[in-house]
Amino acid sequence: MLTFKKLTIEIGIGLCILLSVGFLCTLIGSEPISLGSIRENPQHAQIFFEVRIPRLILAMLIGAALACAGAVFQVLLRNPLADPYILGISSGAGLGTILAALAGLTWTGWGLSTVSLFSFFGAMATAGLVWWIGRFTGRTSGTGLLLAGVVVNAFFSAFIMFLTSIARSDQIQTTVFWLMGYLKSYEQTKVLVVCGLLILASAAVLFRISPQLNILSLGSAQARSLGVLPERIFLIAFIAAALMTAVAVSLSGLVGFVGLIVPHMARLLLGPDHRRLIPWCAVGGALFVAVADTIARVIITQAQLPVGIITAMTGGPFFLILLIRQSRQVFGDHL
Amino acid sequence: MKMIQVSHLSFAYAETPIFQDLNLEIEGGTLCGIIGPNGAGKSTLLKLLAGQLRPDGGRIIVAGKDIHPRISKTHADLIATVPQETALVFGYTVSEIVMMARFIQKKRVLFEHPDDWKAIEEALHETGILHLADRPINHLSGGERQRVYLARALAQETPVLLLDEPASHLDMKHQTMVYELLRRLERDKKKTIIMVTHDLNLAGQYCDTIVMLGKNGQVLHGRVKDILNERTIRNIFDTDCHVISSGDFNFFIPKAGHFSESIVK
Question: Which side of chain A, N or C, has fewer Cβ within a 10 Å radius?
């Protein structure tokens, strides 16, 4: 059974795989580079350190954040179909983005663009709004929150479409890219550090409460009778997951599917214990988006594809194969 | 010693009053059965005793502590519950489910202490499901699942155990096994056990006291012999019974044909 030693070794191996694959990804691109050429060719060194590495880190951060947040929303809503965007946090961010674009607030200071800031605060404000509405419908029940989220999501999406339809095409290009999920090539180091710390801190909090998340997945009544305070754990987990989602979408827009399939794959392979799921979702999500972004960079060299397209197109079929294999193991060939 | 003291308890679901001024005392180290017709509030009483529902008035004292539900406190160190039927979203294994009972012991924050393993193995052994430890709970039969939740309640190591129809899905052999186990826990571990049941005949054989709830707020509480008889069953359950005596016990079997007219209509 799970011990500290076993988990540390397991995650250590996962991190080694992640770092090796990540390193290979940085060598691939429209300008192929190698270990030798980085040392000899200053131009290659510049590409490696100033373009590829920051972009790799960005991809990994987004993947880790979305996968962890997805796993947590699936527990809180007790719904395996939940993902980080289900509560409308993402449409709040989208609305922030398009408002910033329409208002012409496109300047950048201290490495932060106003668009990113608007989408971050749009996301957090929406999370607060959904929580507040959810409280009226059913305090700790996921159903109340889910209903509130779906309504807010629909409303904000309609608002985004309205603004998109009245805006000039040059104004909304950012928004269109944002909706498809894309990674910027030149993210500032300090932005990456701050976002990375926010994501790691949230993941650490989620890992710390992972035994409580296991218990909470049985429902509030059972959680209470087993000694977990459902309201408190729900709030902590909600804040951490909402923060991770907000950071991820303000960095990259709507990178789809990661938050749905990575937690599912982890659960299929490792079981539902969140002490393993949270760290593995972080590693698995980082790996998935890093690889998907590499594919997005090289598949068409003239234009860069938004990474969200790749995650959705590769993730879906892969997940389906895994699901069918797992069902075969459980039910035999009777299916 | 009085383990559970309920005084002047009142509770209503929206406009439907369930209890008004309910008073009840249950001795420590006894096995108490709650019986009554559907809708009399058996499960509601159990939830109130578990601190899962907030009473509208009155107090419930368990082991000297007021168990009025509060946001910032649970009573999981005092009271373990065996739920009636549960829907699981994720496929935990039997030992993972039973392990959740050890959270309240807080030996370690994230990982299990060897004592936790010992307690779980003991609980699985007691309930006869040690061989199922690594099976996903979704793959078990209803009866096996019931015993998993019983094992979890044991592993919680509380003085009070609340059960909602613990044997309702089980065949005769497993029903008897559950009741024997409850009796053993009561005698060897001095647990106070309260269970909701529809089985008057098994309750009559195993319980020390019976709480009989009627639909109009009637409450009868006392020794089995004083509560379970033809007259109270007719009054509370609105059913005529054959009474069969065997050994020290009376058994109650509903008379056929009693209701035919009113139900057909």
Answer: C
**Could B112 and A228 be called an inter-chain contact, meaning their C-beta atoms sit closer than 8 Å?**
no
Beta bridge partners of B62: B4, B65
3-class secondary-structure state, position A259:
helix
φ and ψ at B219, to 5 degrees?
A: -135, 125
Residue A335 has pLDDT above 50, yes or no: no
pLDDT tens-place string over residues A53-106:
999 999 999 999 999 999 999 999 988 888 898 899 989 998 998 888 888 776
Cα–Cα distance list, B263 to A13, A80, B253, B259, B260 (Å): 67, 43, 19, 6, 6
Give the number of A-B residue pairs with CB atoms closer than 8 Å. Answer: 90
pLDDT band with cut points at 50, 70 and 90 for residue A138: low
Q: Amino acid identity, residue B220?
A: L
Answer for the pair A71, A214: CB distance below 8 angstroms, yes or no: no
- The tokens for B255 are 């008379």
Distance between CA atoms of A265 and B142, rounded to whole angstroms? Answer: 28
Per-domain boundaries in chain B: 1-77+160-265, 79-157
Instruction: For chain A, give every domain's residue range.
Output: 4-334
Query: CB distance B52–A221 less than 8 Å?
Result: yes
User: Per the structure block, which two tokens stand in for A208?
Assistant: 């710390």
What letters, b where the CB count within 10 A reaches 16 and e where it falls short, cover A47-86? bbeeebbbbbbbbbbbbbbbbbbbbbbbbbbbeeebbbbb
pLDDT band at A242 (very low <50, low <70, confident <90, very high): very high
Rounded CA separation A66/A261 (Å): 10
User: Is B71's CB within 8 Å of A229's CB?
Assistant: yes
CA pair distance A290, A287, nearest whole angstrom = 5
Contact A225 B89 (CB under 8 A): no
**With contact defined as beta carbons under 8 Å apart, do A92 and A100 qualify?**
no
B130: distance to nearest CA of chain A, Å? 15
Helix-helix angle A4-27:A53-76, to 10 degrees? 140
Strands B31-35 and B192-196: parallel
- Distance from B45 to chain A by nearest Cα, in Å? 15
Q: What does the alpha-carbon distance between residue B132 and residue A104 come to, in Å, rounded to a whole number?
A: 64
pLDDT of residue B239: 86
CB A181 within 8 A of CB A306: yes
- Start-end of H helices in chain B: 42-49, 94-99, 114-126, 142-155, 172-188, 200-206, 224-227, 230-237, 260-264
Instruction: Give me chain A's average pLDDT, please.
Output: 87
Q: Give the Cα separation of A61 and A248 in Å (integer).
A: 8
**Residue-wise pLDDT tens digits, B97-128:** 999 999 998 777 788 888 899 999 999 998 88
Pick one of 3.40.50.2300, 3.40.50.300, 1.10.10.10, 3.40.50.720 as the CATH number of B1-77+160-265: 3.40.50.300
Residues in Cβ contact with A123 at an 8 Å cutoff, skipping those fewer than 6 apart: A89, A90, A92, A93, A96, A242, A245, A246, A249, A250
Domain A4-334, classified CATH 3.40.50.2020, yes or no: no
The DSSP code sequence of A10-40 is: HHHHHHHHHHHHHHHHHH-SSS---HHHHHH
Structure tokens at A116: 């990113």
